[in-house]
Amino acid sequence: MRGVLGKSRKMICSLLSQAPVSPAYYYRSSPSIYKPKPSNRFSWGFLAPIPSPAIRVFCSKPGEVGGLMASSVQNQGSISYLTQREAAEVDETLMGPLGFSVDQLMELAGLSVATSINEVYKPSEYNRVLAICGPGNNGGDGLVAARHLYHFGYKPFVCYPKRTQKPLYSGLVTQLESLSIPFLSVDELPMDLSKDFDILVDAMFGFSFHGAPRPPFDDLIKKLINLHYYEQAQRKPPVIVSVDIPSGWHVEEGDVGGDGIKPDMLVSLTAPKLCAKKFSGPHHFLGGRFVPPAIAEKYKLQLPQYPGISMCVRIGKPPQIDISSLRENYISPEFLEEQVEADPLDQFRKWFDDAMAANLKEPNAMALSTTGKDGKPSSRMVLLKGVDKDGFVWFTNYESQKARQLSENPHAALLFYWDGLNRQVRVEGSVEKVSDEESEQYFHSRPRGSQLGAIVSKQSTVVPGRHVLHQQYKELEEKYSKESLIPKPKYWGGYRLKPERFEFWQGQPSRLHDRLEYSPQETDGKRVWKIVRLAP
Ligand SMILES: NC(=O)C1=CN([C@@H]2O[C@H](COP(=O)(O)OP(=O)(O)OC[C@H]3O[C@@H](n4cnc5c(N)ncnc54)[C@H](OP(=O)(O)O)[C@@H]3O)[C@@H](O)[C@H]2O)[C@@H](O)CC1
Ligand SMILES: Cc1cc2nc3c(=O)[nH]c(=O)nc-3n(C[C@H](O)[C@H](O)[C@H](O)COP(=O)(O)O)c2cc1C
Ligand SMILES: Cc1ncc(COP(=O)(O)O)c(C=O)c1O
Ligand SMILES: [K+]
């Protein structure tokens, strides 16, 4: 075993040293804490979309206990759980009348497992994965997951002691072998799994498990149970991710003796099985985004909505979070003086283009900070609607709080934060209103609804209730039927900030970030931008 893993460690190092230094190598390592984020975020490198905590749940047979019943998951309303028989029936229906093949479902199931893992355990911190695969389809899910994890940047190992002699399985094995993923026999596994692996994928048994585990799985399950004996204060223990069912648990009753595997993450597939109600670990996900409405109806399956294009969705309560431990270690290409543009506007455009290319959500969203004559600052988000040599433009209500403050103190600060690129840009300067024509032109380019909204909203004043806004909006909708021009209210228009200072921030490990500041300087009567590096 030593030899095998020793070799593999070298492989990890060589893999890391070959890692591209292209923009595709921005990532952040964070603790295994779930952070709800918008679902449709794309991030470069190893970051994957994270599901929205909002889930839609239904009750099939409210209050019923057992079978396809509704059962409460904290914070999340209700969700159905399947009995063992129902799980098998759903499986048969999918692969019978509904025309799915086992290969397809297994591929999607394994992908769901891999993406669920990636939601919580980033490869920068949890790199070495051991997938322990059983003889059935649950084992197949594990093999598929291992392949996807490899492509996500993890370093998988596979233990697959009872191989199934079917083309599907031998194909999966060949695919893994072609990626040089090491297969470890049971004998090659160390007694203590905690030293060599960060993630243990339990893909031994799924919903067809019955009785007591037979060799060699009895010992493998014991290895997972005994992990805590080896826990050392200075070492983070590996996490256990169970696929569909924690292996050894009764499919309906759960961990009957209380001495079974205690997974940190459970990825239920298609729908959670009854035993999942007994799962008390911090991360419960659902995967298997393939259930057609026909089957959901037939089995009165109540499934949460998957966010965006995600292959998995968190179910169950979000984990308790120790806020003080929430942190990211930023890993990005260095941002050096010799690389930056002489003109900060060019540099801004470059980074803005990167943010667009990375498909970040609203890269033009910026925090605008202002102060009035009392000197008390306030910040809010606004959308950048134009940027050129004259400055940064946004639109708003000229009678809002920010407008009042800007009339008292025409200086402001803008802040862009581009999560996923580990970048922040600060822009400070003086502010003036844009011309009326510019505001007119932009106003009429907006969707009609937003134009009406701008008329309705006496921004920053007290509103007695939402209904008031709706009522006024409806009246305006009738007043300005289909094609008629909606006049821009006088109290709505743009501002332009003329930059006097820029700072470009690129997150780096150990908080040794890059900060390059631009400030204007007169040289021979010419205005040039001076660039200095600031301590992080
Ligand atoms: N639509 C879906 O739902 C989808 C389901 N999918 C996945 O399929 C899983 C169900 O797969 P599955 O039916 O092949 O059964 P699974 O649990 O892997 O194991 C059966 C094997 O274990 C063995 N075995 C049983 N008991 C044992 C014991 N005590 N000790 C030792 N061995 C024991 C048994 O041997 P036997 O007892 O028959 O001799 C047989 O070889 C499901 O949980 C999910 O992960 C996804 O891929 C796609 C979509
Ligand atoms: C992403 C985002 C973009 C926003 N963009 C604008 C905007 O461009 N103009 C605007 O007036 N308000 C915008 N808002 C609303 C403002 O944040 C704020 O609530 C509103 O302008 C009132 O601010 P004030 O009371 O400080 O004047 C945006 C809010 C968010 C979250
Ligand atoms: C109140 C308000 N005004 C203006 C905007 C600017 O965006 P747009 O002009 O695209 O509606 C926003 C954007 O969120 C907003 O919330
Ligand atoms: K399992």
Description:
Homodimer. This is NAD(P)H-hydrate epimerase. The protein is of the alpha+beta class. It folds into two domains: 2-30 and 57-320, Rossmann fold (3-Layer(aba) Sandwich); 338-533, Roll (Pnp Oxidase, Chain A), CATH 2.30.110.10. Helices cover 27% and strands 23% of the residues. The protein is built from twelve helices and 20 strands. The strands form four sheets. Strands 12, 13, 14, 15, 16, 17, 18, 19 and 20 form a nine-stranded antiparallel sheet that branches. A hairpin with a 5-residue loop joins strand 2 and strand 3. Helix 3 (102-120) packs across helix 4 (137-152), helix 4 (137-152) runs parallel beside helix 5 (167-178) and helix 11 packs across helix 12 (466-479). The longest helix is centred in the first third of the chain and has 19 residues, at 102-120. The chain starts with a helix and ends with a strand. The model is unreliable at 1-24 and 31-76 (pLDDT under 50). The site of flavin mononucleotide (FMN) has 16 residues, from strand 13, strand 15 and helix 9.
